[in-house]
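Loading example: each entry is read as two labelled lines plus one structure line.
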Amino acid sequence: MSILLEAKGLSKNFGALRAVDGVSLSLGAGDTLGIIGPNGAGKSSLFNLIAGVMAADAGQVLWQGRDIINLSAAERCRAGVGRTYQIPKPFGGLTVYENLMVAAEFGGGGAADARALCRSILDQMELSHLANAPAGGLRLLERKRLEMARALATRPKVLLLDEIAGGLTDLECDSLIAAIRDIKAQGVAIIWIEHVVHALFAVVDRLAVINFGAKIAEGPPKATFDTPEVQSIYLGIEA
Amino acid sequence: MPVSNTDAARIGFFLAVLIGLATGPYWADRGTMRLLIEAFYFLALAQLWNLLAGYSGLISVGQQAFVGLGGYMLFTLTMFAGMPVVVALPLAGVLTGLLAWPTAMVAFRLSGPHFAIGTWVIAEVYRLSFAQISALGGGSGISLPTDIVRGMADGRAARESMTYWIALAIMLAVIFGIWVLMRSRVGLGLGAVRDNEEAATSVGVRTVRLKFGVFVGVAAMTGMIGALIFLQKLRITPEAAFSVNDWSVLVIFIVVIGGIGSLEGPILGCILFFVLREFLADLGSWYMVILGVISVGIMLLEPRGLWGMVNRKRRFTLFPITRQVDQNP
């Protein structure tokens, strides 16, 4: 199996704080990887390094074997890295449909069928009835769906999901899981940071655990989660 | 594509306004024509500032830098390079755009309020620099030699008509140019940059390149308008050319009271501004106080300005920009 995305020894310091500490990951086409870790463990910072929003202090990001550490976030998106934000960042002055059109026109290569692509994603993410509504007025679930829809409109090969299930009711969470399974079924590789562990288990094939910026475990989801070390870090249960 | 009733009404309206304005020299007296020329260039400046601030999120209070540069370019090109006015006018815009390039390299190191103040400071630097150039009259300025003015057209009436049509053409080019731009892919990208720059980069928008392009393009057009302004005034001084009051404060007033982030807003704002000025100009400094009170009042009542008030439900637009999905296919 060919490796799509690989992070090697990624590190980032904020002053004296080492937010990300030598994290390595690799992801093949269609792989799904869940990432858990306590608040402040450096999960979102890791995403920012992979997506290119933040410059790494050390380490490499390889995309299909090529080092992309010097590429901007826009270039990495064009290459095939799509991402969502933990706190949704919609383009509030544009409509929902236009939010997707920006992504399709710029990140998705501006193909001739951009409009059709956006409409089908709106259908898939159950946002069609809001297509012409201003994105600034959406509710939380709709904003999270828009985050995903917009990332999908860039035609990603890898989708980075940052706590997309947080703050939702169980029912909303279930519908979101179904949507993410759809995306997985389309062959898009996914890295998903999440605190809602049962949502992760429903989708991902592998689980990585991050604590104090460093990766401390990786493997099959349930087995990895059940190790005493992870239980003590994540749930505060004495091993 | 079938032409709907609203499209037909819109085209009819545009044609009526166009014919009415284009025939100005045949029905308007000299004073009215002067006033209309001024209204045309203020509206063009307002639309350009709205493109920066309302559509792209670049709040500049230093656009007087480019008005002044354009004006001085026109004087330099006609007086020292011997160019005819019709060549010097667009060339002044191009040269201003070229100078906007290094200006943007400095200004874009700043963001938000720092960007706004930075652009103002840069404009002051230009003002002080031009006051040092003795060939252009230094601090006391210089008049356009009469033979250059005479070279434009035969007779005063023909000259004034020509200035009028140039001003009208520039204004229409600015309005329809921005309309086309905002309906294009670039317009989408600018909206995204304005609403959330980080998210824009994450969906593949090369934000710096886009903002740079808009800033330089707006500066070039602003420079051409500056050239026109001082062609009409026939005299240029650093104080008048780089006036923050005339070319930024009043322009921002027009956009804000009319409605920022729309093409219709600056048109309404411009009409209101000239009506107010006709009635209040004799009041001296109270005139500026009243303008200030009106703009604060409108901002408190409706942040989207007069256009937001008359069009609260967003049912009607003169210049449709939003991309719609047909809900009943």
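Chain A has a mean pLDDT of 89.
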